[in-house]
Amino acid sequence: MTRIRSYLFNAYWAIWTALFLVPLGLFALAGAPTRPIRAVTRLWARGILAGLRHIVGLDYVEEGREHIPSQPCLIVANHQSAWETLAFLVLVPDVAIVAKRELLAIPVVGWFLRRSPMIVIDRTNGTQALRTMIDMGREAVAAGRSVLIFPEGTRGSISDPLQFKRGVELLYGRLDLPVVPVAVNSGLFWPGGSALQAGTVVVSYLAAVRPGLSAGEFLAGTERAIDQELNRWRHVSPVIPEAVVS
């Protein structure tokens, strides 16, 4: 049944995404206005989350949302599945996500992500990628948007210790914003290459890290905070936590 639900969800994903070809065409003719495009991108993401909830039985809860400041911030989250990449479009409206260029190759979705706009970098071009990330991050903050980065660079297993790649400390230093560490346990329910599982993803927002720390202090403190939170779910089977659904 789990595999059948996964197949049904994949079919739903394809059909739901295809429906956005119509607004894509309209937006292209209108010069790709960013605010309406962001709104439609969030609508698409909400539809995907609804499909996960009703077809797969996969929902989510948020904990510690009071840690997100009212002003723009830098959000640093672990990365375990495709779930958080699309969910944060809903969880933090108008967020600018640091994303790898390969995501732009996804039909329809890639067009919307590029024009939202997200902070798209080419990871094969290290120095230029860092410069692009910082410059576009500053532009997003100037426009009143928070910036989200998955500093592991790729999806990892929930059992793996957290290890940030180079770049997040530069973004922290240049943007001079409070940082909200986020721990996500989506890998329990949407592991790479495996069928989707029913359950409840927990998004845990942790206490904000103030700006102005040294790169070493920032990295050690943020990695440790997220890693300790992930210990809640390591070596356990997928379960539905007792919490109020968002």
Topology:
Elements: H1 2-18, H2 21-29, H3 34-56, E1 58-63, E2 74-77, H4 82-91, E3 96-100, H5 109-115, E4 119-121, H6 126-142, E5 147-149, H7 168-175, E6 179-184, E7 199-205, H8 215-230
Parallel strand pairs: 1-7, 2-5, 2-6, 3-4, 3-5
Antiparallel strand pairs: 6-7
Helix pairs in contact: 1-3, 3-4, 3-5, 6-7, 7-8
In short:
Residues 73-187 form the Phospholipid/glycerol acyltransferase domain. By secondary structure, this protein is an alpha/beta fold.
What descriptors fit this protein?
alpha/beta; 7-stranded mixed sheet; 8 helices; 7 strands; disordered C terminus; about 250 residues; Glycerol-3-phosphate (1)-acyltransferase; about 45% helix
Task: Provide a descriptive summary of the structure in words.
The model is unreliable at 238-246 (pLDDT under 50). This protein has 246 residues and is an alpha/beta fold. The chain is 43% helix and 14% strand. The two termini are 26 Å apart. The protein has one domain: Glycerol-3-phosphate (1)-acyltransferase (3-Layer(aba) Sandwich), CATH 3.40.1130. It has a seven-stranded mixed sheet with strand order 1-7-6-2-5-3-4, with helices on both faces. Strand 3, helix 5 (109-115) and strand 4 (119-121) form a beta-alpha-beta unit. The protein is built from eight helices and seven strands; from the N terminus they run αααββαβαβαβαββα. It has helices spanning 2-18, 21-29, 34-56, 82-91, 109-115, 126-142, 168-175, 215-230, and strands spanning 58-63, 74-77, 96-100, 119-121, 147-149, 179-184, 199-205. Helix 1 (2-18) packs antiparallel against helix 3 (34-56), helix 3 (34-56) packs across helix 4 (82-91) and helix 7 (168-175) crosses helix 8 (215-230). The longest helix is centred in the N-terminal third of the chain and has 23 residues, at 34-56.
